[in-house]
Amino acid sequence: MAKLKIAELFYSIQGEGRYMGVPSVFLRTFGCNFKCAGFGMPKGELSQEANNIDATKYTDYKMLPLVSTGCDSYASWDPRFKDLSPMLETDSIVDSIMDMLPNKRWSDEHLVITGGEPLLGWQRGYVDLLSHENMKGLQELTFETNGTQSLHQDLRFFLNKWCVSRSMGSITFSVSPKLSISGEKWEDAICPEVIYEYSQVGHTYLKFVVATNEDMEEAEEAVNAYRKRGFRGNVYLMPCGGVERVYNLNNRAVAEMAMRKGWRYSDRLQVPLFKNEWGT
Ligand code: SF4
Fold first, then answer.
1. Which member of 89, 116, 229, 267 has the greatest number of CB atoms within 10 A?
2. With pLDDT > 90 as the criterion, what percentage of the chain qualifies?
């Protein structure tokens, strides 16, 4: 039986993108190929906020401090916090999921596999997880990804069959490509071939985290590169800000930018609703 290293497993409301407002189980795997220390920082500077947290003081993921700069999911990839994310067998993950569903079986809930970068290391484990008898009622599945990791052929083959076997089945790749606002490099982050590949398997859209007009122009450049490779999906702009103070500074401006471009606006409902606490 496969094992997955799980940073968080919780039931909440999807706050972003296509499924905003939908009751969802979030499976957050451990590990990421990026750091995104530029979020919330002046251009060219990197956040030290998570680095300054003393990892030895924490034995429970939920007790970790929230950060207002850098990656708001830092504990899902920073090796200093890896012991807070247990390796779990897929059977035990499915038991926990069933336990948290309101009717103890899938009905209108959707499953979000997120991270970290969920397509980095656990792809074959998802085949095992999603094949479990108790996962048969699941109809809607999203991978929240940074759009840099190709699909392993086993997962690609499985997902193609998964959809065919369900009359209402839907697979989504919610891709959040990292612009320079994140502190990551364009050549590492913008991978048109990978996005095109996802779009051949499931409903795929782009969701850019932005704060300024300059970010929006860079998003447009990235969209052009994806379109050139054949990507035809929707584009969302989402405000930067894992804490309310930062989110409130730019949410309206980002909504207006999206309107100007004829793109979609994605909120981050978990910020105003739940203050972006762990497990929301
Ligand atoms: S890709 Fe996502 S999880 Fe990884 S460092 Fe960036 S924001 Fe954090």
1. 116
2. 84
What is 101-145 written as a DSSP string?
STTSS-SS-EEEEESS-TTTT-HHHHHHHHHSGGGTT--EEEEEE
pLDDT tens column, 84-95:
999 999 999 999
172 vs 275 pLDDT, higher one: 172
The overall pTM is greater than 0.90: yes
- CA 134 to ligand 1 center in whole angstroms: 30
State phi, psi for 175 to the nearest 5 degrees: -100, 125
Kindly tell me the burial class for residue 34, based on how many C-beta atoms sit within 10 Å of its own C-beta (0-12, 13-18, 19 or more): buried
**Ligand 1 atom at minimal distance to the Cα of residue 39:** 7
> Looking at residue 229, what is its pLDDT?
98
pLDDT digit string (tens) for 126-142? 999 999 999 999 999 99
Taking the CB of residue 103, how many other CB atoms lie within 10 A of it? 10
Closest C-alpha residue for ligand 1 atom 2: 116
Residue pair 235/190 in contact by the 8 Å Cβ criterion: no
Ligand 1: residues with CB < 6 A are 32, 34-36, 71, 73, 77, 115-117, 146, 178
Q: What are the pLDDT digits (tens) for 259-279?
A: 999 999 999 988 888 877 777
β-pair partners for 92: none
116 prior amide bond cis, ω within 30: yes
Query: In terms of C-beta density within 10 A (0-12 exposed, 13-18 middle, 19 or more buried), how is residue 118 classed?
Result: buried
Q: Predicted confidence band at 199 (pLDDT cuts at 50, 70, 90)?
A: very high
* Cβ atoms 250, 211 nearer than 8 A: yes
| Cα 272-275-278 angle, rounded to 5 deg | 140
Q: What tokens appear for 129 in the block?
A: 């997880």
